[in-house]
Each structure stands twice: as structure tokens, then as C-alpha cells.
Prior knowledge:
This protein is mainly β. It is 6% helix and 56% strand. The chain has helices at 2-14, 57-60, 68-75, 150-153, 415-420, and strands spanning 34-35, 43-44, 51-56, 79-81, 99-101, 113-116, 119-120, 139-146, 160-166, 173-183, 187-198, 201-212, 221-233, 238-253, 263-279, 283-298, 303-317, 323-338, 350-365, 368-379, 383-397, 400-411, 430-443, 448-460, 463-467, 475-479, 483-497, 500-511, 521-531, 534-547, 563-578, 581-588, 607-615. A hairpin with a 2-residue loop joins strand 31 (563-578) and strand 32. The protein is globular.
Amino acid sequence: MKKILQILVFMTLAGTSAVSIAQSVSDTLLIDEVVVTGSKIEILRKNMPVNISVLSKEDMNEINESTALTSISSRIPGVFVTERGVIGFGISSNSAGQISIRGVSGTPNAGILVLIDGSPQYMGLFGHPLPNSYVSSDLEKVEIIKGPASILYGSNAMGGAINFITKKPMEDGLTGEVGIGYGSFNTLKYMANTGYRKGNFSMFASFNHDQTEGHRDSSAFLINNAYIKANYSVSENFSISADYNIAKLYSEDPGPESALKVFTADILRGKASFSVKNTFEMMEGAFSSFINYGEHSLSDGWISTDANYGFSFYEGLALMEGSLITIGADYKNFGGKGNNIPNEYKDKWVSINEMAAYVFARQNIEKFSLTAGMRIENNSNYGNELVPQAGLAYNLSSATSLKASVSKGFRSPLVMETYLFLPNPDLKPESILNYELGWAQSLLKNRVSVDLSLFWLEGKNAIELIPSDAPPPPMKRANTGSFTHKGFEIEGRLHLLKNLTSELSYSYLNMKSPRLGAPESQVFAGLNYRISKISFVLQANYIGGLYSRLDNLATTTVSEEAVETYFLVNAGVKYRPLKWAEFYVSGKNLLDKKYQINYGYPMPGINLMTGLNLKF
């Protein structure tokens, strides 16, 4: 009976099919949307052979999520991000914020590449992004590649890439926004941002503060995040841009319920980039450089500094009608030092560098769009890696697109895996080969759109911790062999009436071996209704077959209690009495379900947030 009621709720929320990020019937179809992440140069999404999902700023603000990763996890089929509290993903061994796309992730979380405006974001020592830093209010949209993105972005994009695209002023003059929110567990959020544009110059700056006492004893979290970006058009053909971001956070971790022990972390992260872009009639490209650095101080005595820096160059050439050839090159260096390492690398800076060159070509022939490319990447420790990709998009009509692709993804061992903790200098890079078919369809004069993807991926040389054959230590790091993931994802969009939109997505993942933080089934359903100055949002999530713990990493056996299945309902109401003022109330887990995503970390029950946003 319980499952029947859940199905009825989803049917009620979804209407007849689907998802909408559209605000009116005349909006551009999702399949015709321009994206950049899959090619580095703007291209119609329907001409991309790989699966790219797009999350708009309106989506992320429906129930006022602080971090974009939370919205991505709930709304994008096939993508899941682990959580353990009301806000804050935590740091170190029991932390959340692990990103999985189609079951590909890793420990550490280095199988999915995160970018901000195309610049890679990951720690020099541990190779994973800092999930608390991606603030929803700073973003224009998010583009997610589901499947390998290594041909353009190299290592760490083995399972996909998430590109956070920040806001930029579109009109001359000064604009801005301030907001404050307060909610359960003494949670406080406030933010301010401003944009300015005049002539050839534009800039955007923001400050965000989030803090909470947490829903468990000793689970407090606090973060301050500041960001600034500037752009100047030197001429009709050249523009320059630069940005800087700094985040300071403090996190408390009470530990799993079975082994309570308070652990604290004090973290500083910074990021800067600079780029020069050129645009001509038959060519377009850019040169960019970046640095990402951090200082970590943990209560267990760990103190570290790290950096990840590099540059990239690409140029797209339209040599003939319907063609585009992109050539590019990258250089990256990542590393750092720590004080609590039981080997000769203690307090010594250790780094790895990567160099790569690639070519990526696309040719449009009537209704067909053909793509093919090759990347060669050299790692200073592991030598050369060849990365091919090929695909086909067939636009049967303006409303129907068919797609097929085969692509390779890979991840080279990190500094941490090679030198620091249970190090193994003989590790080999992980890799996957992904086969994918896709279909995109719109109906009823653009009122309905449906996206379907089927995938099959074969992986090898997975890097995991397994029992040591000669302890101590009891565990060792090793390549454990092959793995197979297959499944499908479907998302639909339906604009029922002028003021009513609904959405539905579903993904199914079949894995040969269990993986942490990778659910077998994900369902999202949403309903958004606007009347006059008030809007109502109702959302539901079903997660089935989620592994929160593996009992034996050697045999990947799973106890029944470590497999989670749960159903959540969230809702929100917004009232806009004036064009520049908006009040909101939102609630999460309104059915007060008991569940956990990180084993031993129960998630909060019903929790509410209310606030005010002002625009000028």
C-alpha cells in the first residue's frame, strides 16, 4: 500500500509526463539550447552526440537551496551527491559531497570533474572538489556532461563533468540583490551580490554566508564565500576576463552514531583565473590560466597546503560550411605537502604534472552532425594516455533528435594515492569506455519535451582499498579490475497552462559490483504553480538501492541495513508584493522520513527555512 501511495503522489505531481525549466510556452526548447561544456565553443545542444543536462538559476532557486550540488542531485537523473546534514558536506574520512554520475565516482571523489566557467576545481593533494563552495545565487546555470568528458578536460573527467557558469550583467547600469534566511537548527543564510555594466566593461561580485548548529550535537557548520569577476572587451574581436574566489569554512563532525568522536576542520580555499578570448568570422578560441589553492587544519593534527595550477588553449576553425575543427592544449600541475604523513614525504612538497593536446572535429551534413576527436595526455608519473571519442546526432525534424556516441574516460592516480596515504607508486590509471544512445522529442507545439538516454560502460583498473596481504597496515591501495554499469535516464518537461509547469525524471542503474553513493533508482517529480504574486512549488524524490556502506571492500558485500530506500517531499511558497521584493518559506522532508546517505549519519527530519530577497 505504501508503494502504491508513493506512485500516486508522483502521478499527481507529474501530470502526464514531465519537467519544465521553461517559464512560457514560447520559450526555447531545451533541445535547441546553446551549451558550451561539451565543446568549449557554443553549440546547439541537439547537435551534441553526448548527454548534457542543463539546470537553470530558476530551478536552483525554487526552494532556495544554498549549494548548487543539492539541486543537481535531486533534479538531474543519473547524478547523485551524498549529504549528511541540513547544510555543509564536511571534510575528511566521514565527509559527504561525493559526486556520482552513472555510478562513477571514487574514494577520494575524483572521478567527476567540477569546473567554474571552464576552469578545473580540485584540491592538489586529494584531487576532489570542495562541494561547499558552489553557491547557487552566484550562478546563471549549470551544465552537466553525463559520461566521459576526458577528450576535452583530461583526467578526473572520467565519469563526467559539471560546469558552473556564473552570472554576468546583461544590461548597462548597476544591479544587485540581497537576501537573508533563517530556519531550523538555528540555520542562518545571508547573501549580497552586485553587477555593473557600462560600454565594454562588466563585473559581478558576491558575498555569501551560511551557518548552522546542525541537527545533531557537535555538527555545526559555517562558511563565508566571496567572489568577483570582471570582463573587458578590448575590441570587436578580443576580450579579457579575470575572477577571484575565496572561501573560509569551519566544520564540526560528531562521527557516526556507533563511534561518536567530535572532529573539526578549519579550511581556507582560493581560486583565480585569467583568460583572453578571440572571436572572428571563421575562428573562435581562448587562452586561460588558473590556480586553485588551499590550507587545511584538522583536529586530528593534519595541517596541509596544496595548489593546482595550469593553463589551456583552444581554437575553433570553421574552414568550410558546416564544419568546425577545434585544436587545444592543456598543462596542469597539482600537489602540496602535509605534516602528518608516516613516510619520507612528510612536510615535503610533492606534485604531479600533466600535459595534453587534442583535436575535436564536427561536420554538419544536412540533418546529420558528425563528431570525432582524439586527445593524447602525458602524466609525469604514468606516461601517455590516448583518449578517442566519436558520435552522431541526427535531427530528424525540428522536434526530434537521435544520438549515438562512444567515448573514453580516464583518471590518473592522485598525489595522495601515489605518495601519501597507503601509497602505491605502481598504480595504473583507471579508465572507462562508454556507449550511449539518445532520443530527444518535443510535442504539442513545444509544450512537452522528453529526453531519453541509454548507456553501457565498461571500466578497468578501478583504484580501491582492499585488505593487505601482509599487514600492517590492514589495508592497501590497488587496481582491482573491471566493472560494468548499464542503465537509462529519462526526463520530461510539460507546460500545462500559462502558470503551471510540471516535471518528472527517472534513472535506473545496474552495476556489476556495488558502489557507494550510487542509487539503483532515482525519481524526481515537481509541480510549479504561479498565480498573481504567489508561486507554489511541490517536489518529491524517491531513492532506491543506495549503498551507504560496503562491509567488505575486497568482496564488495553489502549488509541489508546499509542499503537505503527513501521517499522525500519538499515544498515552497514565494510571495512577491513588489517587483523588487520576495518573501519565501520552504520545507524539506515534510513527511519526516528517517534515512541516511552516509552510513551512521541520520539525515534531519522536517526542516523549514524562511527569508526575504530584495533586488535593485
